[in-house]
Amino acid sequence: MRRAGLARSVTIGMSMRSMAIGMATLAVIFELTDIWVTAQLPQPSWTPLPLAPEDMAGTAFSVFGAILVHSRPRLVIGWLLCAGGLSAAANILSANTFHLLYGSAAAGWPVVNFTWHVLQLALGVLLPLLYPVGRLLSRRWRWVVALAVAGMALDWAGALSGQKAFREPAHWLVSAAMALAFVSLVVRWKRGDAAERRQILWVMVTLPGLLVPWMLGDPFWWLATLFIPLIPAAIALAVLRYRLFGIDTLISRALIGTGLLIVVTGVYVTASAASSLFLAEVDRVAGIAAAVFAGAAFQPMRRGMQRGVDRLLYGSTGVPGTLARRLRHRLQHADPVHGLLATLDMLREGLSVTGVAVELDGTTTVSGSPGPPERVISLVWHGEPVGLLLVGPTDRRRFPAAHDERVIATLTPYIADAAHAVRLTAALQRSRERILTAREEERRRLRRDLHDGLGQSLTGMAMSINAARQSVRSSPESADLLLAELRAGMDAVSGDIRQLVYGLRPPALDELGLAGAVAELAGTPVEVSGGLDGLPAAVEVAAYRIVQEALTNARKHSGAATITVALRRAETLRITVTDDGSGIPADARAGVGLGSMRERAAELGGTCVVREADGGGTVVDAELPL
């Protein structure tokens, strides 16, 4: 059953697409025929073009309607474009044909009247009522269609009965229905979400190209021919691909460009006129001065207009410059832990989205309800990726700024700074926890060694002293034996104390210095560049332990015959231990020793890398900041 239903749906879809292509092809044929017919008629005085606006409408609306039907066969918008385009082509062809044959289009009034009414109903009433989703706002708007049909019926009644008095009210009824249909677009704009508003705005941008010439009348009406294709193109783009383009950016640049052109032209013309009136003898110099003045004022005017357009489109909270200042102020006055969430709250309000989030090292900081993100933006701090910014669906308040690339490019560096600060804070917290853990483990080891080892030894020595005192007179031999054992015990205690002290800091560092202590470990001279005097104690201990572990690994696991150690001091202390052993096995896993070297370097903010040497063997390369 499912396969049969799917096959039936595919067949219907193919039939609908073929029908739409047929309508578009027929409209194009009508238009080509009309151009030939028009060439047989005298050239109209109101247009220099060989075709009328209806010719362009017939082709453009039907072709873009077929494109829409091909992509969305069940969406009524495409069918309205096809029907409107075909009726426009048939209307202009019939009118010109009857005019050529009979000297007047009135001879074919039934065809001309019918095609004109279909054109009005499809493109003037139904299209604005149903755009962009293909359904009415509510059932109450059906009476607008009824009003248009009533006007058209009254027009037919007047034409058939010969009562011209009927035709004037019929015209007003149809015009009122068309006006109310466009009012429904305004209502849909106010009630719709951000996506629907963008779709409506695409069409609104193209309408002035048709409405302005129409309002100016015959001397300029022919200009509408050039702008008519933009309307169906905008409809198709808004329905199919509206998310891929920033219509708000297009409007912003168009308004700024138009305003600058008007202002600069006005300044130049005013300055030139003033110079011609008062300084006629230096007119050329004054013209150059006017141009220089207009050019100098260009950038301040552009910035002022940009701020005005941003405020118009996005409101006071969505202007990029204002948002950037607020984010900077918030980051300066918030602690790193809560700074990211505070900036996300402000970003969500400024972009007018339901929510935003930042993914950072496996954790997500959320403001609002982002849901499935509509945009995923990489956050980069000085060339280093630090996380992802997830922008949720747009809100209904004002015009959303979340899809304006200029807004996003202005704000993401501040979010990246906040995310980097959170990462640093988290790393610092983890470092503190590791230091605290290591300190407590070291204290526990000292306590255990002192209590179980040194403490027990001292207690035994005290008991031996008491026994020797009791037997020194009665049994000198026994007392001498006890004192000898006590002397051996004291040597053992001294060894234990030496081991404890050595665990805290190798004595060789104090006795021989870092270079001498490392040379004693390696048994060979050490390559030293730069003075090693005055190194921080923590750096000396870390360097000594890294070299010690590297030597142990080379001797124990690689079977190295030659080991070289190099210590180089510049802005950092560079430690390099190279051996000619068997190298690192392919299936080797990092053990405790390798992890210990990396941790000692990381505790100081440095790095430790273990790699294969170029000629075979292993290289341990550590760098410790000073």
UniProtKB/TrEMBL annotation:
Primary location class: cytoplasm
Domain Histidine kinase: 545-626
EC class: transferase
Pfam families reported in the protein's UniProt record: HATPase_c, HisKA_3
Requisite cofactors: [4Fe-4S] cluster
InterPro entries in alphabetical order: HATPase_C_sf, HATPase_dom, His_kinase_dom, Sensor_HK_TwoCompSys, Sig_transdc_His_kin-like_C, Sig_transdc_His_kin_sub3_dim/P
Protein's UniProt keywords contain Protein biosynthesis: no
Domain of life per record: Bacteria
SMART domains assigned to the protein according to its UniProt record, in alphabetical order: HATPase_c (SM00387)
Subcellular localization, as worded in the UniProt entry: Cytoplasm
Membrane-spanning intervals of the chain: 20-39, 51-69, 76-102, 114-131, 143-163, 169-187, 199-216, 222-242, 254-279
Keyword tags: 4Fe-4S, ATP-binding, Cytoplasm, Iron, Iron-sulfur, Kinase, Membrane, Metal-binding, Nucleotide-binding, Phosphoprotein, Transferase, Transmembrane, Transmembrane helix, Two-component regulatory system
Catalytic function, reaction form: ATP + protein L-histidine = ADP + protein N-phospho-L-histidine
Function in brief: Member of the two-component regulatory system NreB/NreC involved in the control of dissimilatory nitrate/nitrite reduction in response to oxygen. NreB functions as a direct oxygen sensor histidine kinase which is autophosphorylated, in the absence of oxygen, probably at the conserved histidine residue, and transfers its phosphate group probably to a conserved aspartate residue of NreC. NreB/NreC activates the expression of the nitrate (narGHJI) and nitrite (nir) reductase operons, as well as the putative nitrate transporter gene narT.
Protein name: Oxygen sensor histidine kinase NreB
